[in-house]
Write a structure and sequence with these properties.
Largest sheet: 2 strands, antiparallel
Structural class: alpha+beta
Strand content: 5-15%
Number of strands: 2
Strand order of the largest sheet: 1-2
Helix content: 25-40%
Number of helices: 3
Radius of gyration: 19 Å
Order of helices and strands: EEHHH
Length: 87
């Protein structure tokens, strides 16, 4: 699938989708997504990678999973002070 942005075609899938494709995947209007993305970046949303020209999609998904408590990695409680002489 390709999206048309001005005079060029941009591939919609892949690891670094366009902002329009990210907006579509998140059920957002592209103009609204641009404003929301700026706010969410302050909270940890991955920024646009300058070399790749898009946001790393698995990192975007990980961000939203953490935001909504769906992260599969839970921090462990500290079990006390380390005793290196016990080895």
């Amino acid at each position: 699938m390709y999206l048309v942005a001005s005079d060029k075609r941009i591939k919609a899938g892949g690891l670094f989708p366009s902002e329009a494709e990210i907006a579509r995947r998140l059920s957002q209007e592209p103009a609204e997504w641009a404003a929301k993305a700026k706010v969410l970046e302050r909270d940890g949303l991955p920024p646009i990678d300058p070399m790749m020209g898009g946001r790393h999609w698995p990192s975007v998904m990980a961000y939203f999973n953490r935001r909504y408590g769906l992260s599969s990695i839970e921090p462990l409680q500290p079990d006390g002070e380390e005793n290196l002489n016990a080895i």
